[in-house]
Amino acid sequence: MNFEKLLTDARENNCSDVHLTAGTAVAIRRYGELMILKNEIPSLSETEAMIYSLMDETDRRMLKEGNDVDIATTDALGNRIRVNVYRQRNNLACSIRLINSQIPTLEQLGMPAPVKTFADKKGGLVLITGPTGSGKSTTLASMVNYINKKYAKHIITIEDPIEYVYPYEKSMIHQRQVGKDAESFASALRSTLREDPDIILVGEMRDFETINAAITAAETGHLVFSTLHTKSAAQTIDRIISESPIEAHASIVAQLSTVLVGIVTQELVPLANGNGRVAATEILVNNTAISNLIKEKKFNQINTALQTGSAAGMHTLNASLMQLVRQGKITKQEAIDHSNDDTSLAKDMMNNFF
């Protein structure tokens, strides 16, 4: 099997991922759906050769020592890919994420106006959330590149691994990869504060140490972007608090209520015509009402605040899904399947005579 042709064909057919497993058929993911390519099955040696071609000596040594390997690199044709290599049933396997060579604009992604407003801020914490494969990394890259084209800023990204590589525009952008350029997200964040940054991108807030360092960076006047695997704004705030030790809850709540700029929760939903996916979003803008709800730990009231906060640019994920159904872009069933409150959405669609 020709590896270059496999990746090229996958890109040309708008696939997001390619899965290789030694001795079995190749699988691809297109518009969120997994498909097995049974017409051509590479041999064990062919698959291993394809996987090893993506790794350098350090990566191969890590794999030999029993570790999974995360790689961001370019394929033979110069296209960016993100790779995770692992073992299953004592054979090699890998998942390859195909990264767009061009960073899309926020308009191309269909992001609502507040997202650009978040990127214009001089300081604070902006969170992009959603499940795996919902496009968080692409939205972050688009926000960073928007800044890159508009402002002269020093931007430092901390990623695991580095996905998008930014062109030289108005900003200076330094990209650090955890495991190669830095020991961890938290240690890189601490160092970053001594490197004169204006903007810091933290690939993921995985633990309290990273959460605390990110909030501290935002509190000291930096604009900080990061992600969480949460499906709503309320769940995002609750997750940050719950990840913190009990003795730190009060201080984290107080800090978050002040430094939070906004939260973008997103889902990628298949189009009704089967020819792609569209982003459905939930937007939280931290105004006085939201800040007070955070201080008082009334997270269960945040959804109501989003519903009544349209003047500030806020909306719920359900409102975004309903709008996409009205526009004929997605089906009612897909909207329900991607909702973070499917019972309420189904009821609202019945009441609105969809």
Describe this structure in words.
The strands form 2 sheets. The protein has a 7-stranded mixed beta sheet, sandwiched between helices. The protein has a 6-stranded antiparallel beta sheet with strand order 3-2-1-6-5-4, covered by helices on one side. The protein has helices spanning 3-12, 44-52, 57-64, 106-109, 113-119, 136-150, 185-192, 208-219, 233-242, 249-259, 288-295, 302-307, 317-326, 332-337, 342-351, and strands at 15-21, 26-30, 33-37, 69-74, 80-88, 91-98, 124-129, 154-159, 172-177, 199-202, 223-228, 260-270, 277-285. The chain has 15 helices and 13 strands. The protein has 2 domains: 3-98, Beta-Lactamase, CATH 3.30.450.90; 106-351, P-loop containing nucleotide triphosphate hydrolases (Rossmann fold), CATH 3.40.50. The relative contact order is 0.10. The chain has 354 residues and is α/β, with parallel strands linked by helices.
Key features of this structure:
354 residues; alpha/beta; Beta-Lactamase; Rossmann fold; six-stranded antiparallel β-sheet; 15 helices; 25% strand
> CATH topology of the largest domain, what is it called?
Rossmann fold
Overall pLDDT confidence: 94
Q: What is the CATH first-level class name of the largest domain?
A: Alpha Beta
Q: Please identify, by name, the CATH architecture of the largest domain.
A: 3-Layer(aba) Sandwich
Fraction of residues in H or I helices: 25-40%
Main beta-sheet annotation: 7 strands, mixed
Q: How big a fraction of the residues is strand?
A: 15-25%
State the distance separating the first and last CA atoms: 48 Å
Low-confidence stretches: none
Give the helix tally.
Answer: 15
- Give me the strand/helix succession: HEEEHHEEEHHEHEEHEHEHHEEHHHHH
Radius of gyration: 21 Å
Query: What is the strand tally?
Result: 13
Total individual domains: 2
Which structural class should the secondary elements be placed in? alpha/beta
CATH homology-level superfamily of the largest domain: P-loop containing nucleotide triphosphate hydrolases
Write out the strand line-up for the largest beta sheet, numbering strands in chain order. 9-8-10-11-7-12-13
**Overall 3D geometry?**
globular
